[in-house]
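Q: Please design a sequence for this.
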């Protein structure tokens, strides 16, 4: 797992840099800088709006006495997506937008649910619930 993370955090910036350099050659340096800035601003705006919406849904479910499992996963997706959108790059922007936009987020929610379910079944994760 550690090797995969090291590979991810070293190869992603290299690939992103190469893609941005290629984009700058095809268009221009200023167009590429503009794209990076616009996706960062739009991404931050979308993540903020979706985050507020998810927080209100979490509060509503808690007030109704229900555990907001789906909304917590939505919040995680929006948090990661927002961070990716603030990171300069083409691949991170595509993944970030798919995590922030509600319709495309469903794919990732299914993957996260399946992963957490498997970890619970294998006994590699415990859930401690405390009622307040």
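A: Design:
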């Amino acid at each position: 797992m550690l090797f995969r993370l090291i590979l991810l955090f070293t190869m992603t910036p290299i690939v992103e840099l190469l893609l941005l350099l290629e984009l700058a050659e095809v268009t221009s340096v200023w167009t590429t800088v503009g794209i990076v800035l616009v996706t960062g601003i739009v991404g931050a705006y979308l993540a903020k709006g979706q985050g507020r919406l998810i927080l209100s849904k979490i509060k509503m479910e808690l007030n109704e006495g229900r555990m907001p499992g789906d909304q917590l996963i939505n919040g995680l997706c929006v948090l990661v997506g927002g961070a990716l959108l603030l990171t300069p790059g083409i691949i991170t922007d595509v993944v970030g937008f798919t995590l922030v936009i509600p319709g495309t987020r469903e794919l990732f929610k299914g993957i996260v649910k399946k992963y957490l379910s498997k970890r619970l079944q294998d006994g590699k994760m415990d859930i401690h619930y405390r009622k307040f």
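Q: Thanks. Anything notable?
A: The chain has a mean pLDDT of 90. The first helix runs from residue 2 to 26.
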